[in-house]
Amino acid sequence: MSITTAPIPATSAAAATPFSTSSLPQEEQDELKAAIFKRLHPRVYLERFVAENVRPDGREFGEWRPVSVDVGSISTADGSSLVKLGETIIVCGVKAEIAEPELERPNEGFLVPNLDLPAMCSAKFKPGPPSEEAQVVSDRLNEAILASDMLSLRSLCIEPGKAAWVLYVDATCLSYDGNVFDAALLAMVAALINTRLPKATFDEEAEHAVCSRNEKSPLAIERTRLPIAMSFGIFDSSRIFSDPTTFEQPLLDAQLSVVLDPQGDIIVTSQIGAPTQTWLSSSGEDALLSCIAAAKKRNRILTEVINQI
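Now predict its structure.
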């Protein structure tokens, strides 16, 4: 048995097409083509913007996204904050518990920062155990907070060797658009400033801590040592992007983070990607020094934001 086929009329082919860009206005057609090209050729897409001395979101290379900080939004937490850095949104809550101090540090309490990057914040994250990025950023947050000495662990001791406060500083990303380290650190600092703990004493007879229901006091925060992070990305070996987005981050040669205190003194610096190479900015200067200089300018703005808490 033989089967013959006839050519499909043009009208039928058009009807079989589930979506045609020709039906869209020219402006929407151009936007759709740009979105497809961006997805298929992300590096070339970014390079074309860089050639025009602008970034895909319209910012200059050294321009930062707007930031806002709100505190006290979680009534069930001992302290909380909500930080928006562009389209990156972090909510942070502090919960306090009482535990026995470690034998090696009987006069110190505990500070446990953690960042959660759930699947709801970005398609790049999947449900299940914490992603590698979440674990790495959590470690960096812990390092920055402890290195800053913004909160002495001794101030969390209730009774040496018997009772101390444990502060769980849990940050969750609600919307992920890059530079989550800066946003999460800012959220954690703001939440700790907002934290109020009940007055606690140790009952020797009952051998446990007793908390007041009426008296609460803020943490012994050292405001001159608050850690403030500014992160940068290096693209094409010389271009320095301030506050990189989620689209830019995978295309970067390296990422640099500078953590300063309100006086502009360096607390810690970190680098991700090509650690053995010395990067130079487009002007020929050492990239790290250029980033530190830019971070100190940005630091003044963020310090003013934190001082309003």
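The longest strand covers residues 163-175.
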